[in-house]
Design goal:
This protein is about 50% helix and about 15% strand. By secondary structure, it is of the alpha+beta class.
Length: about 110
Amino acid sequence: MPLPSRPPGSGVPEPTRVQALAALLGATRAHVLLRIAELQSATTNDLVQELAVSAATVSHHTGVLRHSALITTERSGVSVQHALTPLGESLLGAHAVPSRRPSPGGSV
């Protein structure tokens, strides 16, 4: 599954940067990490709908990302919420993918 190309200067990473991230993580795992970053946090169901993959696929990839300390996962009842860790933000930042985490003090 190819990652989408976006024009330079549009606030999104250059395709070569995204391709490098996909080469490092795998295309689906890179998609999962990018969607979590774009949404600030995401439930497993959000990711299933956004990426058009099965819940088992999302769970597998979020498990690998969690064990790699790139995301955190919190369960609330039947919902599972995923968010970037500082290491995940650093990895995306190194690949020119901006994080949308609000800065301390409430300004975005």
